[in-house]
Amino acid sequence: MMMSPLPTLPYKIAVLVFIENSHGEHLLLLRAKPPNLGSWSPIGGKLEVTTGESPFECAVRETEEEVGFQITTADLHLFAMIAEKAYEGQSHWLLFLFRCRRTFDVLPAEMEEGRFAFFSRSAINTLPIPETDRIALWPVYDRYRDRFVALRADCAPGRDLQLTTEQIC
User: Fold this and answer.
1) How far apart are CA 13 and CA 26, in angstroms?
2) What digits encode the pLDDT tens for the residues 77-134?
3) Whole-prediction pTM value?
4) How far is 164 from 100, CA to CA, in rounded Å?
5) 45 close to 58: Cβ distance less than 8 angstroms
6) What's the rounded Cα separation, in Å, for the pair 119 and 29?
7) Which helix (DSSP H) or strand (DSSP E) does residue 33 occupy?
8) Which DSSP state fits 159?
9) Whole-angstrom distance, CA of residue 132 vs CA of residue 82
10) Which residue ranges form the domains of the chain, and what is each CATH number?
11) What is the C-alpha R_g of the chain?
């Protein structure tokens, strides 16, 4: 059976920053706004493309804006780039995933985007998280957090998630 072509949708560029505390627990945000309303996810946000912001600069900015932690680009390790096609049928996303090399033990205050908590990696599997995070994002983190991988994901509604590896370093 021939698959129908993917829809023409806007393309968004964003970062996610994986932050741990000294116990190896992950800082997650219970999102109070779409996308991923009501789900736990790493912090992050969209690049300010009109200013020419780089993914690293965005990760530093979002870390300070969302959790108040001041980091530099040297504190970040880019471990994945994922091109998501038709996420929730709303837009295409180019995601840059960073692991923060510094640990933080302070729980950030609740904000308009949601509230924060630290979770062990095994506890994350029991949380309400986006299905694409369960199937792809966290397994990518587990496998490549100290390396680099480039992936493409077909997230179109009505299709099984198709994840294709484009490069591993």
Assistant:
1) 23
2) 999 999 988 776 677 889 999 999 999 999 999 999 999 999 999 999 999 999 889 9
3) 0.90
4) 25
5) yes
6) 11
7) none
8) S
9) 11
10) 11-168 (3.90.79.10)
11) 16
